[in-house]
Amino acid sequence: MLKIGAITVDPPLVLAPMAGVTDRDFRLIVRRIGGVGLVSMEFISSRALTDKRARAKTLELMHFVDEERPLAIQIYGADVDTMAEAARMVEELGPDICDINMGCPANKVLKGCAGAALMGDLDLAERMIAAVRRVLTIPLTVKFRLGLNDSARTYLELGRICEANGVDAVAMHARTAKQMFRGAAEWPEIARLKETLAIPVLGNGDIKSADDALRMMHETGCDGVLVGRAATKNPWIFSQIAARMADRAEAEPSMTDRRDLILTHFRLIAGREPSKHALHKLRKFTGWYTHGLPHGATLRRQINDLPDVETFLAAVEKFFEDALARDAA
Ligand SMILES: Cc1cc2nc3c(=O)[nH]c(=O)nc-3n(C[C@H](O)[C@H](O)[C@H](O)COP(=O)(O)O)c2cc1C
Fold first, then answer.
1. Which residues contact 256 (CB under 8 A, 6 or more apart)?
2. What share of the chain is helix, strand, coil (3-state, %, to 5)?
């Protein structure tokens, strides 16, 4: 059983943090389907959180409900004191776990020396981890990559620093920052990290199916896995992995399951976001959710021209009505 500090993560399956994706609506959807042991929030800028003018908007992003628990809030930044202050504020919000991002490869984040840039400055990374650890009483995790690039693979050193400074678990996306999402994640490196550390190691990168998740755990010995992109196309993936781990058959969602999920998710979005943002999110998720479905491409083309949320929802309902009628015929 995976324990991160005092928090039980059962099953040891984690929804990976994804900016613009793992907002409260999506986390709830994944949680309601089941099979997920821990959900992660989109990363939060420590600077925005500690800045009086940006704070209100950031706190709004950080809203969560008990139904999502256990939940991790991830923060990023380059300044030790700002990160410690942000961590203190995170703890006040009451999540189960605080996570530090040391893996983001986006130029905007790297330039500020945050995210994966910290893998190139292990002294700064250590001071940051120690400072955040000092202010927190809840479990602390760190998520990182292999390193900045192939000639600077610092993940074993960073893992040791985490362990020596009271970090409760680490997660590694087995690519370098330079690779972004190119090439294949190097799972043997997850095995090396696991062999090196005594604290739990979570593996991440390229899990597309329940088979992949079981294979990663088997091949690397990792204590749990994070699933990111595959969950956007298939939010049932956690329940499918959990079923396989318990030696149960893995169920494929029916067309009715899909319709119910999409419409529930979309109504959550439509009820909360201003309509322009809602439309943007609805388009993005329709693209993912209808990937590989018969006639999905027709719906995806059609939704580009829909003017508002109501017509959008009507189009999605019609798509599923037609699909279910075809299935019944
Ligand atoms: C759209 C998107 C946004 C992401 N945002 C974050 C983030 O905020 N914090 C983070 O640590 N990783 C972020 N990631 C990386 C994922 O958490 C994960 O490490 C990566 O996608 C590899 O896992 P996968 O192959 O299962 O997708 C993001 C990835 C994507 C695709």
1. 324
2. 55, 15, 35
Tokens representing residue 168 in the block? 């409760």
Q: Which of 150-159, 273-282, 319-328 has the lowest mean pLDDT?
A: 273-282
- Whether residues 196 and 316 fall in one domain: no
> Is the Cβ atom of 16 under 6 angstroms away from ligand 1?
yes
The first and second tokens of residue 179, run together, are: 């690779």
CA 27/CA 73 separation, integer angstroms: 12
Cβ contacts of 77 within 8 Å, gap of 6 or more? 45, 46, 47, 83, 86, 112, 114, 128
Please name the residue whose Cα sits nearest to atom 28 of ligand 1: 18
Residue 250 maps to a domain? no
Point out the domain boundary residue: 205, 226, 245.
Answer: 245
- Residues of the domain holding 302: 255-328
What is the number of helices (H) and of strands (E) in the chain? 15, 11
19 alpha carbon – ligand 1 mean position (Å): 7
Q: Are residues 125 and 194 in the same domain?
A: yes
What is the 16 CA–ligand 1 centroid distance (Å)?
Answer: 6
Nearest CA to 141 out of 105, 103, 97 is that of: 97
The answer to whether residue 162 is catalytic is no
Neighbour count for residue 182 (Cβ, 10 Å):
8
Cα gap 277→266, rounded to integer Å: 12
Q: Whose CA is closest to 299, among 318, 272, 279?
A: 318
Pocket-testing residue among 14, 15, 18, ligand 1, by greatest number of atoms within 8 A of Cβ:
18
Give pLDDT tens digits for 62-83. Answer: 999 999 999 999 999 999 999 9
Question: Do 316 and 241 have their domain in common?
Answer: no
CA–centroid distance, residue 92 to ligand 1 (Å):
25
Question: What confidence tens digit (pLDDT) does each residue in 250-299 have?
Answer: 889 999 999 999 999 999 998 888 788 888 999 999 999 998 899 999 99
173 Cα nearest atom in ligand 1: 19
Q: How far is CA 162 from CA 4, 5, 82, 102, in A?
A: 13, 14, 19, 11
> Which residues, in sequence order, are bridge partners of residue 97?
72
| Average pLDDT over every residue of 129-156 | 98
